[in-house]
Amino acid sequence: MTRSAASRLAWTLVGICAAGLASGIVLHSVSRTSDLGSAPLAIVFGTALMTFPIVGALIASRHPRHAIGWLLLAAGLAHMALSLFSGYGNFALERAPSPLPGGVVTSWLSDLIWLPSVAVSTTFLFLLFPDGKLPSRRWRSLALTAVVGTAMVALALVFEPSLYGHPDIKAPLALPKNSERLLGLLGTAGFVLWAAATIGAVISLILRFRRARGEQRLQIKWVAFAAAISLVMVPSFSLESVEALAFLEPVALIAIPISIGVAILRYRLYDIDRIINRTLVYG
To answer: What pLDDT does 200 receive?
Structure first.
């Protein structure tokens, strides 16, 4: 693919993500059962999620063969689909006893998309950063573990008896109630595999950092800094009932794609040590 064709495709995908996320924000804002809370918080989340496809398009348009740019775009599309499907599903099912058409299917699809969207945004980004390739062939088994674990969780959710966010509504491909234990074991095993693969991806990044020299070492340091910020923000995720703390979660979302964009596009790459020092001082 030529550079101009890659650029057109990348920015077209950004437009699709923007339209889908905007629609999802509107639906979440008017939904009484939205898990994003208030309309301002939904807007902040949507804006934060747009950093994934925008940074991906910037990378893909300049480096069409770099897998990280397309992976960020894939993450943006997954986040968009999750927001749009869950937003419409909540909005449609609130109209009971006369729900809008497609509400059950879109809510069901949003359940399936959740873990794949997280895996693309974290596990595979860490595993392929900074050059878009696995550290070596030996890491293929770890990538396969992440894929298998994610697929197992999705498969368990496909046949769940009820919708995750609406336990009183039967899922489209629901199995009998006596299958819940088996599906639970399948989903738990898949989640453990995915979590182990994610830890392995972080370890691969640490090993790359230890072996790296010069510019690549600075690139990895940017992403490590962003990952540290995200980990610091994690405790706020359980306190979303506190509006001020809930706004910290989008900050954690933004940190990873922006740091990747800075590292790959080499924008002010060498300021990382100064930024880390100032962050520690202000903290």
So the answer is: 92
